[in-house]
Design goal:
Chain lengths: 407, 111, 394
C-alpha cells in the first residue's frame, strides 16, 4: 500500500459532473484538486453519449469529455483512473477516503459517482449476449466494438430509445424494441399506456411526425390510453426504430449464448395474447430497466436518504447548493437524481462555486457566482433535449426541504 | 472468418487508434487493442462466455459493462479474479474463463 | 387502532424470539410475535452460524450447547424449510507450544466429562487443511459441533410457527407494557394498537434493556460489536469451522500474544465455510455503543489475521463486510428467566456470541417455563436475579 495522499478537494467520479467541478474550481483559485475514477479513462457516461440537437447538429459526449479533460490538465488537476473508492470516514478536519490504491486525506469531498442501471430479470437473462442497454452503448460508442450484429431491446424508456438510435448509427441491426413481460418484476413501463406517456417526453426530439403529433396531443389531452389501443400491432418507426408497444419479450433462448428471443403480442393492459408467440433470431439482447443514482458512498459516509421515484431512487439529502448534511461533503450529477449530462455539468460547476463559497476566502465575490450557478442549473434542465422525468423540479424541492429540516 | 465486430469507421466518432497486441484466452492466442478492456478484446474475437457459474456451471458473460455488476469475472494470471470490463488489456496477458468449482460441502464433484 | 389478544406476546423476531414462538406454538399456545423491522432483521442476520461446544467450559455451559445441538438436529425433521444444517465438528488451532499445552488441558477436562474432544497433531492439521500456514503447531477438535444458516433457521422457525397458528406482526414497535393494579402483565402496547395478554417474553436482543425498563427492571445487556467479511466464491479451503485457540488463553490466566490493534479490536480468527462456496471470516469484539458503521481498520485487522492462518486468502476477493451487535452480559451467559416482581414478564435475551447455538434450548425451556412444565435443563443459573446488585454497571 502506498503512503497517504493529501489534497484540498477530492472528487470521486470523472464524469461530466466531477470533471466540470474540477475545471471550475481550479480555474478560480489555488486549490489542490484531485479527481479519481475506477474506469480506465476519464469521462464517465459522457464517453458513450451522442445525440442530435434541435438544430440537427450532433452533440458528441467524447468531444465534450476531451475538452473538459484538457481544461483540467491545463489547470493542474490530477486525474487518477483505475482507482476504486470503497470507504469513507469523517475526520475532525475533513475526510479519509479509502481506495484500491491506498488512503487519501482531503478537506473537502465531492461525490459525483453518477447512476447505475436497474437490472430486469427476464427468462434467459443470464445468457452471454444479454446485457444492459448501457453496456451495449459502452461497447459500441466507447470501445467501438458492436455488442452483436442483430439485437433486440427490452424496455421502452427515454434511454433505450436514445441508445437504440446510437446503435443503428453504428451499423447494428435492431430487430425490435419491446416491453418486458408483465410479471412480478415489471415496472410501470410495462403496459402500453404508461409507455406512451413516457414517449410524450421525447416529443420534441422525435423527428417522426407521428410521434410529435401523438406525443403533444397525449400530453395535452391525456389521450394516451386511446393511443395505446390505436397503436398498430406491427409497431411504428420512431427515428427509424422498430418500436413495438403491443409486443412483449417473453424469453431469451440459447444454449451457451443468445440465439433468439420469443416475443408475443399483448393486450392494451399488457397481458400476453395466447398463440401470438414467435421466435426472432438475434445474437444479443439489451435490457433497459431504467437508471438509479449510484449513492452507496453517500450511504457509507452516513448521509440520510430520501426515496424520490421521479429522480430514480434513494437520494442523499442535500440542499440547492449541493451540500449534504455532513461536514465538507458535497454531491453533484446523477447521484442527486437521474438527468442528462448537460445538467450534470451545470451541477458540477455549481458544486465548485458552493465549495469555494464555503471555503470562505472571498465570500462576497463568490455569492453572486453561486446564485448564477443555481440559476444556470435550472435553465439547462428546462432546455435539455432528453428529459428523464417531467416533475424533476418539484421532486428536488422535497429534498431541499428535508435538508432544512435536518439542519 | 466471421465478420469483425469492430466499428472501424464510425460515422460520428471516427476511428480507434490503438496498438494491436497479443494475449491468450483459455490458452488460445488472440489479438486485441492495447488498453481496451479485456471483455472488449474478447467480444471483438466473438467470445462472449467469460465464466461458468461456480455452482451451476451455466455460461455467463458481460452484463453492465461499467464495473457495477461483477458478472464478468475472469482469471488473470498473476492477479486472480478481475472484472473483464474494467481491466485494460496488456501485451502477453494470460486470461482464463472463471470456472465451475466442485463443492466440497454439498459433495458435488463435477467441475 | 385495534385490540387483539393472545396467550403470549413475544417481543423480537430474532432467532431467540422465533425459537420461543415455535416451541410455544407446538405446545398449542396462541402466540403473537411483535417485531419492529423484519424477521431476523437484527443481530440474527449479522452473525455466523456456529453451534459450538468447543469453546465452552465443561459443566452447565457446555450442557446447554450440547442440548441445543441435539434439538437443532431434530429441527431438521420438524421444521418446514431447510436451513443448511451440517454437523462436521469444529477445530481450534494453536500457534505455539504454550498454546498446545493449554489445549491439551482443555481437551482432558472435556474428555473427563465424556465429551467427544481430541487433540490434532501437526500432521493431522496438514492433511485436512492444505492451505493452512506451515507453522501451525496443531489443534483440537470437537466432533459434534454443527453449523446452520442463521437467517434460514430463523425463517424456518417463523414459517413453521405460523403454520401452527402463531401470528407475526412485523414493522410493529412495542411502545409500552401495560400492568394491572397488582403489577402483573395485562397487555403490550404497540405502534398498531394494544394486545391483551398475561405473558410477555422480552426477546429483543441488544434492545432488551429498554424493554425491561418499561416494567421497571434493569438488566445489564450491552451491545458488543463484531465485524465479518464475506469472500467471493472460491475453490474449497476447508469444509468446517476453524478458530484460533489463542482467544481461549485468558481462560488459563495467560495473555494472548498478538499485536496492539488485534488486541484493541478483540480480533480472533473464525473461518466459516458456507454451502454456496463463499466463506465468512470473523471476527472482532468491541464496546462502541449502537454504532453500526463498518470500521475499515477493523476489517483490515481481521483480514490480516485470516491471512496469517490461511496465506492463500490474500488473493481471494472480499465481496462485502457487515457488522452485528452481540447482546453481551457481564458473565457471558444469557438471561432466560421469569421476573417474579412482574408476574407474566419473562426475559430471553443476552446470548452474546452464542444466540444461534442456544436458540433452540432457550425456546424450548421458555415454552416449558411459561406453560408451567418442568424445564429440559435447569434455568436457575440463567435467572436475572444474578445481576440485581450490579445492574447497570459494566
Ligand atoms: C449506462 C448509462 C448510460 C447512460 N446514457 C445516457 C445517454 O445516452 N444520454 C443521457 O442523457 N444520459 C445518459 N445516462 C445518464 C448519465 O448518468 C448522465 O448523462 C451523466 O453522465 C451523469 O454524469 P455524472 O457525472 O453524474 O456521472 P457519470 O457520468 O456516471 O460518472 C460517474 C463516474 O464515477 C465513477 N465512479 C462511480 N463509483 C465510483 C467509485 N466507488 N470509485 C471510483 N469511481 C467511481 C464511474 O466510474 C464514473 O466514471 C446514462 C447513464 C448510465 C448509467
Ligand atoms: C459477528 C457476530 C458473529 C456471531 N456468530 C455467532 C455464532 O457463530 N454462533 C452463535 O451462536 N452466535 C453468534 N453470534 C451471536 C448471535 O448472533 C446473537 O446472540 C443472536 O443473533 C441474538 O438473537 P436475538 O434474537 O436475541 O436478537 P436479534 O436477532 O437482534 O433479535 C431481536 C429483535 O428484537 C427487535 N426489537 C427490538 N426492540 C423492539 C421493539 N421495541 N419492538 C419490537 N421489536 C423490537 C429487533 O428488531 C430484533 O429483530 C454472533 C454475533 C455477531 C455479532
Amino acid at each position: 500500500m502506498s503512503e497517504v495522499q493529501q489534497t484540498d478537494l477530492l472528487i470521486v467520479g470523472a464524469g461530466p459532473a466531477g470533471l466540470s467541478a474540477a475545471a471550475t474550481i481550479s480555474a478560480d483559485r489555488d486549490f489542490r484538486v484531485m479527481v479519481i475514477d475506477e474506469f480506465p479513462e476519464p469521462g464517465g457516461r459522457l464517453l458513450g453519449q451522442f445525440h442530435e440537437e434541435r438544430n440537427h447538429s450532433w452533440w458528441i459526449g467524447k468531444i465534450v469529455a476531451a475538452d473538459l479533460i484538457i481544461q483540467n490538465t491545463l489547470a493542474g488537476v490530477m486525474i487518477q483512473c483505475g482507482v476504486s473508492v470503497y470507504g469513507l470516514e469523517l475526520l475532525p478536519d475533513g475526510w479519509r477516503v479509502l481506495t484500491s490504491k491506498g488512503d487519501i486525506r482531503t478537506k473537502y469531498l465531492l461525490l459525483a459517482t453518477g447512476a447505475a442501471e436497474v437490472p430486469m430479470p427476464i427468462s434467459g437473462w443470464t445468457l452471454p449476449g444479454v446485457m444492459s442497454i448501457g453496456a451495449a452503448q459502452v461497447m459500441a460508442n466507447v470501445h467501438q466494438v458492436k455488442p452483436g450484429e442483430r439485437g433486440y431491446i427490452v424496455g421502452v424508456n427515454v434511454l433505450s430509445l436514445a441508445i437504440a438510435k446510437e446503435l443503428v448509427v453504428a451499423g447494428i441491426e435492431i430487430e425490435g424494441i419491446a416491453l418486458p413481460p408483465d410479471d412480478l418484476f415489471a415496472m410501470e413501463e410495462t403496459n402500453p399506456v404508461a409507455a406512451i406517456e413516457l414517449l410524450t417526453r421525447l416529443s420534441d426530439a422525435a423527428p417522426a411526425p407521428w410521434m410529435r403529433w401523438g406525443g403533444k396531443l397525449a400530453q395535452k389531452m391525456k389521450l394516451s390510453r386511446l393511443i395505446a389501443s390505436c397503436f398498430p400491432k406491427k409497431g411504428v418507426k420512431v427515428w427509424d426504430l422498430p418500436l413495438q408497444l403491443r409486443t412483449a419479450l417473453v424469453s431469451i433462448q440459447g444454449v451457451d449464448q443468445v440465439e433468439s428471443v420469443i416475443v408475443a403480442d399483448v393486450t392494451r393492459s399488457g397481458e400476453i395474447i395466447e398463440g401470438s408467440q414467435r421466435e426472432i433470431e438475434v445474437d444479443f439482447v439489451a435490457i433497459a430497466g431504467g437508471l438509479y443514482p449510484l449513492a452507496e458512498l453517500a450511504a457509507l459516509a452516513g448521509c440520510p436518504f430520501l426515496y424520490v421515484s421521479e429522480l430514480g431512487g434513494n437520494i442523499p439529502v442535500h440542499n440547492e447548493r449541493l451540500k449534504t448534511t455532513l461536514p465538507n461533503l458535497y454531491v453533484a450529477g446523477n447521484i442527486t437524481g437521474v438527468e442528462g449530462a448537460q445538467v450534470a455539468m451545470a451541477q458540477g460547476r455549481l458544486a465548485a462555486h458552493s465549495i469555494s463559497y464555503d471555503a470562505g476566502w472571498f465570500a462576497c465575490e463568490e455569492e453572486p457566482k453561486l446564485l448564477d450557478a443555481i440559476a444556470e442549473v435550472k435553465e439547462v434542465r428546462r432546455s435539455a433535449m432528453i428529459q428523464f422525468h417531467p416533475e424533476i423540479d418539484s421532486a428536488r424541492k422535497r429534498i431541499y426541504e428535508l435538508f432544512e429540516h435536518w439542519m | 472468418m466471421r465478420k469483425s465486430l469492430r466499428i472501424n469507421h464510425h460515422p460520428l466518432l471516427g476511428e480507434m487508434d490503438k496498438k494491436v497486441i497479443s494475449f491468450t484466452y483459455n490458452g488460445e492466442k488472440l489479438q486485441g487493442l492495447e488498453g481496451e478492456p479485456i471483455a472488449v478484446a474478447l467480444l471483438a474475437n466473438h467470445i462472449r462466455i467469460l465464466r461458468r457459474h461456480e455452482e451451476s456451471g451455466s455460461a455467463r458473460g458481460l452484463y453492465c459493462g461499467i464495473g457495477h455488476c461483477m458478472e464478468c469475472r475472469v482469471e488473470l494470471l498473476g492477479k486472480g479474479q478481475v472484472r473483464a470490463c474494467l481491466t485494460p488489456l496488456k501485451e502477453g496477458m494470460e486470461i482464463r474463463e472463471g470456472s465451475r468449482l466442485p463443492n466440497a460441502i454439498t459433495g458435488r464433484v463435477d467441475s | 387502532m385495534t385490540t387483539e389478544s393472545a396467550d403470549v406476546v413475544i417481543i423480537g423476531g430474532g432467532i431467540i424470539g422465533m425459537a420461543t414462538a415455535y416451541y410455544l406454538a407446538k405446545l398449542g399456545s396462541d402466540v403473537v410475535v411483535v417485531e419492529k423491522g423484519e424477521i431476523a432483521g437484527g443481530t440474527s442476520s449479522k452473525c455466523d452460524g456456529n453451534i459450538l461446544a468447543i469453546d465452552k467450559e465443561p459443566g452447565f455451559d457446555s450442557q446447554m450447547s450440547l442440548e441445543s445441538q441435539k434439538l437443532v438436529s431434530q429441527l431438521v425433521m420438524e421444521l418446514d424449510e431447510e436451513f443448511e444444517y451440517r454437523a462436521p465438528g469444529s477445530i481450534l488451532v494453536c500457534e505455539s507450544d504454550e498454546e498446545m499445552e493449554a489445549a491439551e488441558m482443555w481437551v482432558n477436562r472435556q474428555k473427563e466429562v465424556g465429551l467427544p474432544f481430541r487433540m490434532l497433531d501437526r500432521g493431522e492439521i496438514r492433511s485436512e487443511w492444505k492451505y493452512m500456514a506451515d507453522d501451525i503447531h496443531g489443534g483440537l477438535e470437537c466432533a459434534t459441533d454443527s453449523t446452520v444458516n442463521p437467517v434460514l433457521l430463523t425463517y424456518s422457525m417463523a414459517v413453521t410457527a405460523e403454520r401452527l397458528g402463531a401470528r407475526l406482526k412485523t414493522h410493529t414497535w412495542v411502545t409500552g407494557i401495560r400492568l394491572d393494579p397488582s403489577g402483573a402483565v395485562e397487555g403490550v402496547e404497540t405502534s398498531s394498537g394494544l394486545i391483551r395478554t398475561k405473558h410477555v417474553v422480552n426477546a429483543a436482543g441488544v434492545w432488551s434493556k429498554p424493554i425491561a425498563q418499561m416494567v421497571g427492571i434493569e438488566i445489564p445487556v450491552e451491545p458488543r460489536k463484531g465485524h465479518i467479511l464475506v469472500s467471493s466464491r472460491t475453490e474449497s479451503i476447508g469444509t468446517r469451522k476453524v478458530m484460533e485457540f489463542s482467544y481461549l488463553m485468558s481462560k488459563f490466566g495467560k495473555e494472548r500474544k498478538v499485536d496492539q490493534l488485534t488486541e484493541q479490536y478483540g480480533v480472533a480468527l473464525v473461518f466459516e465455510p458456507t454451502a454456496s462456496q463463499n466463506f465468512l471470516i470473523g471476527s472482532s469484539r468491541e464496546f462502541v455503543g449502537f454504532d453500526m458503521k463498518i470500521n475499515v481498520d477493523v476489517i483490515r485487522c481481521i483480514a490480516r489475521r485470516a491471512i496469517r492462518f490461511f496465506p492463500v486468502m490474500k488473493d481471494i476477493p472480499v465481496l462485502r463486510s457487515y457488522c452485528g451487535l452481540r447482546p453481551w452480559t457481564p458473565d457471558h451467559l444469557p438471561i432466560v428467566s421469569r421476573v417474579e416482581e412482574v408476574p407474566g414478564f419473562y426475559i430471553a435475551a443476552g446470548h452474546e456470541g452464542d444466540g444461534i447455538s442456544l436458540a433452540a434450548i432457550t425456546g424450548k425451556v421458555m415454552s416449558e417455563c411459561i406453560t408451567g412444565q418442568e424445564t429440559t435443563i435447569s434455568i436457575e443459573p440463567l435467572h436475572y436475579n444474578r445481576f440485581k446488585k450490579e445492574a447497570g454497571k459494566r
